């Protein structure tokens, strides 16, 4: 009897508990249905071409920077440009007092003229001595011929003397004549050698005088160069900065900087990227030109350029690598020293699944999810896999389909299954599943225990 009574009591208790839990579920569902729709904004899941970009902060650098200095000393007589003026290569910038330099040039020219006269004199002496050599050689040839004839006559008369056909006195006369002519030939040979030695000395003197004139010419050329430094011209096309010295100041050679000129067309933008992206950047650069965009503060349109430089070492302190992009800067919207936002476009990904970045929520354990609006005007909490974020867009690898609606604003008041009202651009609400009354009080915030992960 008692066991049967206990079993009956247990069955009654189970039925009571089941009824209570069912009532609670029905109460919770009806409570959600009674809540007014939550106003939200939505966006469609789209497929579009998304660029693969690297973003950085860069600094504009002049393509070329020239510090203009005086190469000669003197008083600064005239400034031919204004501060902040555009100049072209060869434009006159400054004039330094040239009088001392002009005097030095005149002195060098006079010294050279004097030495040129000495060269002419040395050449005249050389020609005279060469003529003397010719004369002595002619006399030598004449005396050699006479000596040869005298020797022949002496041998002939010696034979006649042996046969006693002529007197001794007559033979002695021919012998003396032959010996005299032989001595004359030896004297002529000495004269020729002496004249030739004199010509060699004259040639050395001429060469020395000509070397002296060449040295004088170098001095004249140097004086002309020094004089040309008195007029300072622009070495590049660019824009002038502030004047550091003014008319009347005395400048010293290679000491005083007068002006700085920056070449701003074209120009560089220098920026750094994490070293982890170096391999990708080098790979894409090997395949072609790598384009970059620079946008300054307050500028509406970016300036386009090309990456032209990758540094040869990674900065071990920051773990970044420095790059430079070259921009034509035709409109001069980039200025040296300016900070700009740089966008480096590595490639483009076609047919990427994209949602606005504000639609993506991050829950516990760093799980990404979005609220998807279903046709019945309720929302579904759906986990997604994020490939990457590019600006205001998030590329989704999986979890969504093109054309689905995701909530971009109002997620804080949503729970799975909650009714929503889509707010249009003008603020009027509508329910995606059809008509329905607009909420009067905007609904209440769901309990914290019902929030999504």
| Overall pLDDT score | 84
Which CATH class of the largest domain is shown? Mainly Alpha
Largest sheet: 7 strands, mixed
Helix content: 25-40%
Q: Do you know the CATH architecture of the largest domain?
A: Orthogonal Bundle
What is the overall number of helices? 4
Secondary-structure element order, N to C? HEEEEEHHEEEEHEEEEEEEEEEEE
Please tell me the total number of domains: 4
List segments where confidence is low: pLDDT < 50 over at least 5 consecutive residues: 1-7, 9-22, 425-431, 433-453
- Proportion of β residues? 25-35%
User: Would you count the extended β strands for me?
Assistant: 21
Shape: elongated
State Rg.
54 Å
The CATH topology of the largest domain turns out to be Helix Hairpins
Distance between the termini: 53 Å
Oligomer status: single chain
SS-based class: alpha+beta
Task: Describe the SSE topology.
Layout: H1 2-34, E1 38-44, E2 46-69, E3 74-79, E4 86-87, E5 92-96, H2 99-162, H3 168-228, E6 231-233, E7 238-240, E8 250-251, E9 257-274, H4 278-286, E10 291-296, E11 303-310, E12 320-327, E13 339-356, E14 361-362, E15 368-373, E16 379-383, E17 385-390, E18 393-398, E19 405-409, E20 420-423, E21 429-430
Parallel strand pairs: 1-20
Antiparallel strand pairs: 1-19, 2-9, 2-13, 3-5, 3-8, 4-7, 5-6, 7-9, 9-12, 10-11, 10-13, 11-12, 13-18, 14-15, 15-16, 15-19, 17-18, 20-21
Helix pairs in contact: 2-3
